[in-house]
């Protein structure tokens, strides 16, 4: 669906792909949502009237970040593979992307477990807890949705339902995954670098 | 008036089959993915809520008609003004405008349907569910004494009044959830309209040949993406506060009441433009046709629309001149707000220049548009007054503000929505609305409107604040409030005439034909009502007014457009 | 600081025009004292705002006359007439020069209006507080106002007393605005524009009244079910009156032996949990301070008069005046209430 089919005689009438337009529109809206949560996080930095503070309890999730960011590379490589019709290579890279995403979720789970049970920080503890869990949680929710999408497409691929003609749909989905990674860069900077 | 049938693509002659049983036809409407049917559903849905919210307004006007009145108890009054505002903005304004867009945009760009018909249906049903959810609070929300209770904190829902300690029960949860749900519906429609206008245009329909209504809907949809979402985010925060004990707006734990006000108006101000820009589009369709001239300064109109949308993102704090911002911030928002006046002025002047030198036909759609021009001029000027921050310290939250935004919401938006309905009803149903009843509707509505909302400016100047369920007899507001209430009922009668006009014309209206107004955009090239596939073959256009080109082969538009 | 003279003339002219043109006689009958019109200023910031608003009104009024006139002319002049032929009028698609002109003119108007506005914003908002200015802390509560005079040691409610300001003896009052619960807004239209009272966000405003008298205001930010009855009175006193009022308010409560029974009712029931009466065991702060209740003209934030009858009815069932207000009906016996009222009436 790179162009809308038109009547004969209009070969040069090219329009943008509606899938990509729609996904970019959706991501614009998502950006606004994340902006509000990021603004909320920054606004409340250092305004707590009780602990714990970010510096006391937060560790920088280096490994997690590397995993998530490299998943953007692997999904990009898999897009190149399906363009050329190499379904097996596509499936392998796609599965790797999914694995990296799941690793990120496990990392977040371990981090939260430590924060809740060791440091006693929950969403109701203080303003830091409130803003931290909602911002990181909002992002993690997006990773979960992305992981579900990745899994579905992987299942379709393994059952032989995906071929070269689906390239554009795969690319539209990949846009979402790239966005989730890009948002992590912002969240990471705000929460673990600036806010700590 | 020429009633030409323009054979752009023509239409397939399909003789209607015999009517199906009622249940089957209803089922077809429920499962439809046709943009035209969804458009009609949106409009009907919005009109139902308009009657409900109008009844709430009339009840409030009875309560305020005389001082110290006991018609409504305070808690009911508070629910009514909250529900009136929320309903009119989220369940009437946006659905009706997106509904009209749903119907008209694909036709005007020569497309067979929206880019994503299923998403379109999904969005409508989400919006519809949101509306029902909001009103379900009257039954399902548990209030004091086991009664249901509706949201009662104003449509702006300032924290901390909305947090658990001050809003016991579940009315706020209904409010937040209903708006989140209908917000997702709106988001879906906005995405759909963007994808449709960018990716579904017929051959030759370049961006700068799109009808202005399509342009405005594109701008509005883009604006919606970044307008509705901040509200959704803030409402999620509110729900986190209410359900999980988070502290975003919990002032006891250091949370900020001010943050909500910022978030709300970051949504709330552009929201006004989400509502008003589509009606600029409507006026830009109707005024040229009924003045018999091309729109004056098309590129400037497009630029001004984009400009308004852009500037509207940077003016939200003019709703907050009284919250105690620094003098520098206040000054900044004074300037940004006044700047909106410039592109808005360009639009008004271009409409004026379109009429200038034309041959104006005073049919009902045009009457509503002419009234819109004057009323929008006044609304813009009172807006300038409110942007003068020190004066706003006086006028803010007074009836002057109520008058100002109703001048926009009713005087500009509702008037143009009526214009749009009179204009496109023949296309949608194949029948003309009655001109006689239309004129009764117009004049009564006009008189009622001015009695109500002109007078409101003056009670505001006399110091009457908004959101009060009663007032003392010795404040000198009694007579004016009585006039306001009388005007409100005249408007109510006018709306009933309109409803009667619709019902009557559906059965007995004059046959419309394809092109009853002798208009120039593509939707008038198909039969009325258009077949499911819109156009028998894909149209090709060469200018902004394809039907003008066909009607005037000796003097086509494309000769003049760059 | 006082620009009263010029503003006064402009105000009279404007009010005459407005009154003649728009409002029924009853709406204006008691204007001087009763209608809190923003066009009847009586305090320095209100005069500045009034002057600015007349300027803005003149500009916008001028625009309305010109543009509205052009619109009316165009619609009438270019209507389709019965004897017109069916030809279409000449099609004009635009004109760069004309469009440029009507872009530039609004820009110029905006510049002028913006600069004027900015000047007034800074003049009012950043006015320095003179050392001897009166300080009052205003605390908004759900449906009533608390006024504290920290330098004078006075706590009162709903009726603010301030001294009048004269050119020879300027007496501005600076108000520090706090909230005990939700958002409120302090608005006395004749004295100044409104400023909100927001929890966790202290605000400030000031007034400098130039005429003695009573000025009405009320809460201007929706704050809950009885927002409409969160009324506010400002008494602008002559210097002598104000000094007498201050002296009176600084006293402990009157202790009249004839009403001991009522005082015992007050102290032994839950009244004392919420209300304070200086000189007794009652130190509650959730409700208004009642030490000098009888010196006030109204009760319940202006919802009722301070008469024995109203006071009795109010204590028996507060919801009769303010349905949904936070004071509960205490279920006292009739005789208890009568004694209580008798006691409260002595608290001058």
Entry summary:
Chain A has helices at 18-44, 54-57, 62-83, 87-118, 127-158, 167-194. By secondary structure, chain A is mostly helical. The longest helix of chain A has 32 residues, at 87-118.
Which spans of chain C have pLDDT < 50 for at least 5 consecutive residues? Answer: 19-32
Stretches with pLDDT under 50, minimum 5 residues of chain A: 1-10
Strand residue percentage of chain A: under 5%
Helical/strand content category of chain C: alpha+beta
For the sheet with most strands of chain A, the description reads: none
- From the spread of the alpha carbons, the general shape of chain A counts as elongated
Q: In percent, how helical is the residue content of chain C?
A: 25-40%
Sheet/helix structural class of chain A: mainly alpha
Order of helices and strands of chain C: HHHHEEEEEEEEEEHHHEEHH
- Beta content of chain C comes to 15-25%
**Multimeric state of these chains?**
heterotrimer
The percent range for helix content of chain A is: over 70%
Q: Based on Cα principal axes, name the global outline of chain C.
A: elongated
The end-to-end span of chain C amounts to: 36 Å
| Mean pLDDT over the full residue set of chain A | 91
So how many helices of chain A? 6
Description:
The complex is a heterotrimer of chains A (196), B (562) and C (348). Chain A is built from 6 helices and no strands. Chain A has helices at residues 18-44, 54-57, 62-83, 87-118, 127-158, 167-194. The longest helix of chain A has 32 residues, at 87-118. With 562 residues, chain B is an all-alpha fold. By secondary structure, chain C is of the alpha+beta class. In chain C, strand 6 and strand 7 (195-197) form a beta hairpin. In chain C, helix 3 (44-77) runs antiparallel to helix 4 and helix 8 crosses helix 9. In chain C, 42% of the residues are buried. Chains in contact: A-B, B-C.
Give the helix/strand layout.
The complex is a heterotrimer of chains A (196), B (562) and C (348).
Chain A: H1 18-44, H2 54-57, H3 62-83, H4 87-118, H5 127-158, H6 167-194
Helix pairs in contact in A: 1-5, 1-6, 3-4, 3-6, 4-5, 5-6
Chain B: H1 22-30, H2 35-65, H3 74-108, H4 117-140, H5 171-199, H6 212-244, H7 257-291, H8 298-312, H9 327-355, H10 364-387, H11 389-395, H12 399-429, H13 435-461, H14 478-508, H15 546-551
Chain C: H1 4-22, H2 25-28, H3 44-77, H4 96-125, E1 134-141, E2 144-149, E3 154-157, E4 159-163, E5 173-179, E6 184-186, E7 195-197, E8 203-207, E9 213-218, E10 231-237, H5 239-250, H6 260-268, H7 271-274, E11 298-299, E12 304-305, H8 308-316, H9 334-345
Parallel strand pairs in C: 1-5, 4-10
Antiparallel strand pairs in C: 1-2, 2-3, 5-8, 6-7, 9-10, 11-12
Helix pairs in contact in C: 1-3, 3-4, 6-9, 8-9
